[in-house]
């Protein structure tokens, strides 16, 4: 079951929804609008020994993190 991230085109609210199939109607939880833009999801994956996967044992690094720090997760 994919989880999609959306931004409402009417009010700017960001939200996520599990979409079971293409017929699933997605509406904004704030204004109930059906107009939205699908956002690119950022996720972490194992990386076989890179600095990101060894981060907890080596202490804080000078930026970066699981995705290089560009997503704002750190």
* Topology order in helix (H) and strand (E) letters: EEEH
Share of helix, binned: under 10%
**What's the total number of strands?**
3
Q: What CATH architecture of the domain at 1-42 do you see?
A: Single Sheet
How is the quaternary structure best described?
single chain
Q: Strands of the biggest beta sheet: in what spatial order?
A: 2-1-3
**What is the overall silhouette?**
elongated
- The CATH class designation of the domain at 1-42 is Mainly Beta
Can you tell me the CATH topology of the domain at 1-42? Rubrerythrin, domain 2
Binned strand content: 15-25%
Q: First CA to last CA: what distance?
A: 27 Å
- Category by helix and strand content: mainly beta
* Average pLDDT level: 75
Query: Main sheet, how many strands, which sense, barrel?
Result: 3 strands, antiparallel
- Tally of alpha and pi helices: 1
Kindly provide the radius of gyration, computed on alpha-carbon positions and rounded to a whole number of angstroms: 17 Å
Regions with pLDDT < 50 over 5+ consecutive residues? 53-59
